[in-house]
Amino acid sequence: MGGYAEYVVIGDDNLAKLSDVIDFPTGAIVACAVGTSYNAVCDTGQVKQAERVLVTGAGGLGMHAVQIARAAGAFVIASTRSPGKEPALTEAGAHKVVVAPDGRFAGGVRDASGGRGVDVAIDTVGGAVFHEIRRSMVPGGRIVLVGEVTGKPVDIDIATIYRRGLQIRSAVSTSRRQLEMVLRMVAAGSVKPMVDRTMPLEQAAEAHRLVEDNAVVGRIVLLP
Fold this sequence. Notes:
Layout: H1 24-27, H2 30-44, E1 52-56, H3 60-71, E2 75-80, H4 86-92, E3 96-99, H5 106-112, E4 118-123, H6 130-136, E5 137-145, H7 159-162, E6 167-170, H8 176-188, E7 195-200, H9 204-212, E8 219-223
Parallel strand pairs: 1-2, 1-4, 2-3, 4-5, 5-6, 7-8
Helix pairs in contact: 2-3, 2-8, 5-6
């Protein structure tokens, strides 16, 4: 998964044409960050207009999931531990941002949704926030797992899931159809891929450090 090879060989059925209005650094993040978010929000999560949607995390997936959920007509609530990422989430399209440095965001999400909770959660963080997400959901809500950044295992009382009719789904990667769809959205300006910065390939270790330190909004693109 991933790598730094100078050349790669792939089948042509995995390719999609890049519009002339999309430069290569931007195009480099469309499949993973934008396409996977589209999969999570539109196909796996089946977000409908006026539904309340929670997006956890402000990384590459989270920032684009906010944009796509907003474009789908949802009321978007974003959660983050970092106060410094609130402006970027708002600019991306979140109607409300819940900043919870201690990770306990469920109460804030319920307040932001008028006490009702959310219909769909797009989780880009993983096990560390699962129970806060569960507490944020309406009965029958849909939890879409997209990322796992902590590796933290989750102990689940199954009764807390089935008694409230919660659905747990997962979105993995991007199909060619989804990639072509988001490329059209990007070309039309309805979604803006968020490249935090570009860096030379020689600084790959520093780029990884920035990501691990949670100092990146969107994606870093390494240039050969």
